[in-house]
Amino acid sequence: DVKVTQSSRYLVKRTGEKVFLECVQDMDHENMFWYRQDPGLGLRLIYFSYDVKMKEKGDIPEGYSVSREKKERFSLILESASTNQTSMYLCASSSGAQGLNTEAFFGQGTRLTVV
Amino acid sequence: RKEVEQDPGPFNVPEGATVAFNCTYSNSASQSFFWYRQDCRKEPKLLMSVYSSGNEDGRFTAQLNRASQYISLLIRDSKLSDSATYLCAPKGKDDKIIFGKGTRLHILP
Q: A41 vs B101: CB contact, 8 Å cut-off?
């Protein structure tokens, strides 16, 4: 079974802090994603990576950066946390192949509160 | 037009009934399509992939209409345990997976 593991289930950080959210997958997937999910807004793509050191902005990249130094690990960085970044953050991975069995598998989510 | 659109619901449906959801997508280059199920305070989990010819998995049937750019999900003989939010997710040629906001389903005893 694919396993996507996020480093924390719950985090509380102060405004202005630099925050790192870590995600590791064990299925040798090429693609990794960071989403945030807010009530009424659904899952919104922050950043996407299709290979080591490669990244693309999603729909809401402002205030975030990412790092992918190894294939299995994708980090989301909040350079200076703000209260409007309080949210559920979900990491996912998927195969880079076309066709079948290319769905995204999710981690359990990190609920981040910025105070 | 939003990239992926779903009726947010909620759909309140008696147990045993049939319910159907539609989802429209704007990216005509989308290659693969998925339905996910998300329970309260949990991560989304794949319910089923959607194949071009349509496919069935037990009580669930998914259809794809490329010409009109929509996918559908039909649930027959609904169970209380089907209560959840259902998310549709087209995957583009660039491998990005964009999710709809989801449709909430409540099955009533």
A: yes
What is the tens place of the pLDDT at every residue in B59-75?
A: 999 999 999 999 999 99
Q: Which residues of B34-54 are buried (b: 16+ CB within 10 A; e: fewer)?
A: bbbbbeeeebbeebbbbeeee
Summarize pLDDT for B34-44 with one digit per residue, the tens: 999 999 999 99
| A33, A56, A103 member nearest B34 (Cβ) | A103
Question: What confidence category does residue B93 fall into, taking pLDDT thresholds of 50, 70 and 90?
Answer: confident
Is pLDDT above 90 for A96?
Answer: no
Tell me which chain B residues have a C-beta less than 8 angstroms from the C-beta of A90. 43-44
**Cα–Cα distance measured from residue A101 to residue A94, given in angstroms and rounded to the nearest whole number:** 9
Reported as a single tens digit per residue, the pLDDT across B74-85 is 999 999 999 999
Cα–Cα dist A21/A23, whole Å: 7
**Can you read off the two tokens belonging to residue A66?**
């990412």
Comparing alpha-carbon positions, the chain B residue that sits nearest to A101 is B49
For residues B46 and B16, what is the distance between their CA atoms, to the nearest angstrom? 23
The chain B residues in contact with chain A (CB within 8 A) are 31-32, 34, 42-46, 49, 87, 89, 91, 94-102
| Partners of A105 in the β-ladder | A93
